[in-house]
Description:
Blueprint: E1 3-17, E2 24-38, E3 42-46, H1 53-60, E4 68-73, E5 76-77, H2 82-91, E6 92-95, H3 99-102, H4 109-119, H5 125-138, H6 144-148, H7 157-169, E7 175-179, H8 187-204, E8 207-212, H9 215-221, E9 224-229, E10 232-238, H10 239-244, H11 249-258, E11 306-309, E12 312-314
Parallel strand pairs: 3-8, 3-9, 6-7, 7-8
Antiparallel strand pairs: 1-2, 1-4, 4-5, 9-10, 10-12, 11-12
Helix pairs in contact: 4-7, 5-7, 7-8
Amino acid sequence: MEEILSVQNLTKHFAKKGIFSSSRTVVKAVDDISFSLKKGEVLVLAGESGSGKSTTARLILRAIEPDSGRIFFDGTEIGKDSKSLDKIRMQCQMIHQDPYASIDPRMKISDILMEPLEIHKIGTKAERKKKVLDALHEVKLEPAEDIFNKFPHMLSGGQRQRIVLARALVLKPKLIIADEPVSMLDVSIRAEVLELMRELQEKHDISYIYITHDLSTARYLGQNISIMYLGKIVESGPIDEVLLHPRHPYTQALLDAISEPEPDNLLKEKKIRINEPLDIDVYQGCRFRARCPYAIEKCKEEPLLEQTGQDRLAACFVKLD
Ligand SMILES: Nc1ncnc2c1ncn2[C@@H]1O[C@H](COP(=O)(O)OP(=O)(O)OP(=O)(O)O)[C@@H](O)[C@H]1O
Ligand code: SF4
Ligand SMILES: [Mg+2]
């Protein structure tokens, strides 16, 4: 199958002021990561807070400049010229965590949804209106004509996130990057928003990067998963295999944190104690070393992300599973 996105050796470091005003440290937010996505594929990017998930998304959309690395989107290298930026900004849409922050409260829903079409100079006014009404039907906000004239504050959080989805859809995107799209919504409506996302993905064959630290919803949408830890991908592969048979101690630890004592819980319970991080340079050797219950002497070197089986990669010296 054809690739829609290929990320090669992507790197972004930030300078961070230390606790003492003179000291400066570097945050390796994204540190030489590579992955690719096939057309119609849903890739889950998971990992706890600060692992570099949102930075990766912002780099793909060129909201920020990478230090190094290459990104190919639908056959075009991004960043080479302004046409490549127009292409990614039109055909790759981002959905953020907070539907309140991502839409302007002073704008009417009609204007919010028309705006991307106007920016990209698509269609006549009548054609734009039709596209917008179609998108409202797609996200099941009915009656669309009524919603059209409302303001964001007149809608619920779930409805607002549907507006954000509709705004992405009007541009007929090939790739949607959804960054924690349901984490700020009421638990009771999360499932229906995810279900809608899945329905739209299947109907329009859109590729998704679904960013989350919630592994329990990840399996619902994803086919493949990449687990990030401190700027590195530490494990990747088909989602069911990775979550049922994790090969990296960090993946095990993440699963351990969510395993519930339910009889139908397919996730194997893992007993891993996470040590408190020691006061060491986390970028020396394996970044998970200070917290890893399996650490050995060799872990003072940095492990490479290597193949451990069909379609599976892990960056660890110890063979688990
Ligand atoms: N503009 C910036 N300036 C300095 N440091 C930054 C900047 N953006 C991100 N970082 C740092 O880079 C690291 C990765 O941040 P990022 O937002 O990508 O993580 P994340 O995986 O999306 O986390 P979360 O789950 O909390 O959203 C963090 O340590 C963060 O503090
Ligand atoms: S390389 Fe060593 S420290 Fe790192 S995850 Fe594997 S066992 Fe743990
Ligand atoms: Mg984030």
